[in-house]
Model the fold of this input.
Amino acid sequence: MASAASSGLIAGFTALCVAELVAAAVRPESGPVTAVGGAVIDRTPAAVKDFAVRNFGTDDKLVLQLGILVLLAVFAMAVGVLALRHRWTGAAAVLVFGVVGAVSAAGRPEGRPGDVLPSVVGAFVAAGVLYLLAGRLLAPPPAAGETDGVAPGAFDRRGFVIAATATAAASAGAGLLGRRLQESRLAGVSASRGGVTLPAPASPAPAIPGGADLGLRGLSSFTTPNKDFYRVDTALVVPRVDAGRWRLRIHGKGVARPVTLSFQDLLERELVERDITLTCVSNQVGGPYVGNARWIGVRLADLLGEAGVKPPSKGGPADQLVARSVDGMTIGTPVEKVMDGRDALLAVGMNGEPLPFDHGFPVRMVVPGLYGYVSACKWIQDIELTTFDAYDAYWVERDWSREAPVKTQSRIDTPRPFAAPRPGTVPVAGVAWAQHRGIARVEVRVDGGEWHTARLAAEAGRDTWRQWVWEWPATTGHHTLEVRATDRTGATQTDERVGTVPDGATGWHSVVVDVT
Done:
């Protein structure tokens, strides 16, 4: 029984390795694990997606892929046992693997006809492998006149071990070759990013004022380094787009002059540089999915205006801009917000360098004041003007709101939860954000008592977060610290705890500490 299960595992391993090799000739996104994982993500309810992000963070994709591999291993072992009793049926059952992978690949929004090949080829080769290995597990018939052949009920152990070892080695070789071919293919794309030199912006960002970063230990820095900037998206394989081949098409309702732009076209335009804080709608109260960076790019409103687009307030027929990514993601943004004068950008740079691949190279959208799922399309390749009534973007189809301005929020960075500071003056510090409105006041209280006004760091702009600190005269004991912020419209964040679905979480962030 154990040998039969192992034969199934080897067949499954073969399927994955052969598929990896074929995917190198098609494209990395066509691999069966990636295709099935993408299909699972597409069909995951909003509440489950929110649970995954909340509990696994940026490792949610790794957890999903490991889960798929575990299920595949269980399926492969079961098929191996089946093949021991029904050789042809077991081999045919392996083809189910190919069908699932092929259907998943073909059903992806960005799917191409050739994407079915890795799953199909891998499954057929694995079916042949299982058929052969199962044959080694069956007792050979004794030759006429022989009395010392393999005993009835035994199997060709030596032949099975040799066949299984050779198959596993060949499969591993195919998988490694496929990985090397993919790496070689992507090397040119990496070189295209390495060859980008960002021009000096015609409109540079204002200097960050002294005092914008309080420099306190444990407090998030004013500018988030690229390596630490949060990443929340649905891409199991980060798209690698060659900047030289990249094109952006602007078309649709109310577009008098459709436009197709190259990356070089954008670099040759007037570039602006701005400090803008981005926030993910999946950010829980006090969560980590918020970051501030210095972006450089082209004003999106200028491009739309040149194409003849008018906002609804000026008689334009389109109220929604649908941005499409190379990985099939669609993000719907209000046209009015993009063209109301805010620094909505097609960004090409982040913190002084070309966009990292993880954050949308070569071009992404950045719209201050809106949650990322309705504004921050990475790896963008198409912009269509339409209406909210005519089209529901990816996340709207999954029960998230059509429009989602960032809610006023604040977070305690230090002291950390369950910290044990000494009695005396303890700096309680953190960040607050209300992009495109700005932060006017932050208050802290202890154990439900009176609110104390925190000292705000210098304001770098209304589109960035703002640091704050309150010097707490801490006394011995178990204490709960809470924070709330008020934006420049006079609105104070509510204490009502609401989850992230459908348009962002609300509530006061709190931290429990023991002063000893």
Remarks:
- DSSP finds ten helices and 18 strands in the chain.
- The mean pLDDT is 93.
- The longest strand covers residues 477-487.
- The first helix runs from residue 2 to 26.
